[in-house]
Design goal:
Blueprint (H helix, E strand, L loop, with lengths): L1 H16 L6 E16 L12 E15 L3 E12 L16 E13 L2 E8 L21 E10 L4 E9 L19 E11 L4 E30 L5 E35 L2 E13 L5 E16 L2 E10 L9 H6 E2 L20 H6 L6 E11 L4 E11 L4 E3 L3 E3 L2 E15 L2 E12 L1 H6 L9 E10 L2 E4 L3
Length: 470
């Protein structure tokens, strides 16, 4: 009787729960330490610097919940470098190595229409404009409100996102936003497949707006000093003039930049191809106009089942810094900005050009030719070899005086991947950059030195601690 009552109670309980009875809850994690040997990583090495080794990485715990209407994710992250915290006193909070990486929920109004709100990782196409920067231990996430829709039978899907950033705590009126983030950002992405995924086309439009940076106004003040004798009589005076720089914020002054373009992928038997391009217009943060572009294409062919070759070319527009064009450069920027993408997988594993592509508005462009070979030794082991050749897109004058050649150098990346288990991956790589005299002049190196090199060994383990799924 007791057993029957228990079963009856459970049946009524599940009936009352309704949809939540179909919910799934999962607790998972990620451990990803990476040992590195740095001898010129991200910056060309010279003879006065010493190579070194380090260990960095991240640890995450991830909570996922899903039912027919809701999907949620909450993840905590520790991004660290070995030794940055005292071993006798845990100060990870003070050093900001522990934070909330993701915290969002998605509600499905209809089967194919949903809203997603919170701190979200974004990844579209090849992550050229928006990516989650998985290579960095910290990753990248955005505070967004987004809408997702689609028609699975028609092989179509679309996303729209919007972000509005402010400082904390929020004030009663508009206040200065002094962070390096965008003030506003929105994007629209659509993708459609044709011929049973043989052809896939996506288009994207992105608008980001920045507040005019703090300006400094010169203020001149005069102070009169009176000269008094021993009898306390005023016998004269002198004037001291001082100047100071007073900061002036511009919370009402915003400049917006737009980026539009698309990608196409084609796959047929052993042949694969990609072509894509974007145009940037509008204004950058300091008010200058933007007119920039990028385009690229590659073709891959699987010669035999375990062996594939690929060749490609990309060009990012740039700005000519010749003093003769000084007036034009002061008004217009023609250097393409890669925005919030993942550069590591696109422009070399040594990340030599990351800072230039994301933070410098007047760089002279970047051309890249590359060839890649992939060998799959088995289902769990593979080897990738990539050679890249880099050059400026326009003429460049070092210190606005010395004209240099466009050739920047080449990079060789070798990466080995071993996956003994579905949730375990061993990733090892060796990279070498062959610089030219142009690169040496850019880093103010007096004489030629050997190239830069970088190597790493990374282990990724993603355990599933708990799951209600069968």
């Amino acid at each position: 009787m007791k057993k029957l009552c228990t079963h009856l109670f459970m049946a009524v309980f599940l009936l009352l729960l309704g949809l939540p009875s179909m919910a799934q809850f999962t607790v998972s994690g990620e451990f990803r330490p990476r040992a590195e040997y740095r001898d010129g990583y991200t910056k060309l090495r010279d003879s006065t610097q010493t190579a070194y080794g380090d260990i960095l990485g991240r640890s995450r715990i991830i909570f996922d919940y899903q039912n027919e209407k809701f999907t949620t994710r909450f993840s905590l992250q520790q991004a660290f470098v070995f030794g940055e915290n005292n071993f006798y006193n845990s100060d990870t909070i003070r050093n900001n190595t522990i934070n909330i990486f993701e915290a969002w929920f998605k509600y499905n109004f209809l089967d194919n229409f949903a809203i997603r709100v919170g701190r979200i990782t974004l990844s579209y196409d090849d992550q050229r404009l928006i990516g989650y920067n998985n290579w960095r231990p910290q990753g990248s996430a955005h505070d967004m409100v987004g809408f997702q829709w689609g028609a699975p039978k028609a092989a179509y899907q679309g996303d729209f996102g919007f972000a509005m950033n402010n400082t904390s705590p929020a004030g009663a009126f508009l206040s200065n936003y002094n962070m390096k983030n965008y003030k506003y950002m929105s994007y629209l992405w659509n993708q459609k497949s044709f011929f049973r995924d043989m052809l896939k086309i996506s288009i994207m439009a992105l608008l980001d707006a920045y507040q005019l940076p703090t300006q400094y106004k010169t203020v001149t003040s005069n102070q009169v000093l009176w000269v008094i004798n021993n009898s306390k009589d005023t016998i004269g005076h002198t004037t001291i003039t001082t100047t100071s720089q007073v900061p002036v914020t511009n919370p009402n002054q915003l400049y917006a930049r737009y980026t539009v373009g698309g990608n196409a992928w084609f796959n047929w038997d052993n042949l694969s191809a990609w072509v894509g391009g974007y145009y940037q217009g509008g204004h950058i943060q300091d008010g200058r106009q933007v007119s920039a572009f990028m385009f690229g294409a590659n073709v891959g062919y699987q010669i035999v089942k375990p062996f594939k070759l690929m060749v490609g070319y990309e060009q990012l527009s740039g700005t000519d810094n010749n003093p003769a064009n000084k007036t034009e450069v002061a008004k217009k920027v023609t250097s393409f900005n890669v925005l919030y993408g993942t550069n590591h997988q696109l422009y070399g594993y040594m990340d030599m050009f990351n800072s230039m592509l994301q933070s410098t508005y007047n760089y002279p462009g970047l051309n890249q030719m590359y060839a890649r070979a992939n060998i799959n030794f088995s289902k769990v082991t593979s080897l990738e070899a990539t050679w890249r050749y880099f050059s400026f897109g326009k003429e460049y004058l070092v210190d606005m005086k010395t004209k240099v050649k466009k050739n920047l150098g080449s990079e060789l990346d070798l990466m080995f991947v071993y996956k003994p288990l579905p949730n375990v991956e061993l990733n090892a790589a060796y990279c070498y950059f062959f610089p030219t005299s142009t690169m040496e002049l850019l880093y103010n190196l007096a004489s030629s030195v050997r190239g830069s090199q970088y190597a790493y060994l990374m282990i990724t383990y993603k355990p599933k601690f708990f799951s209600t799924a069968k």
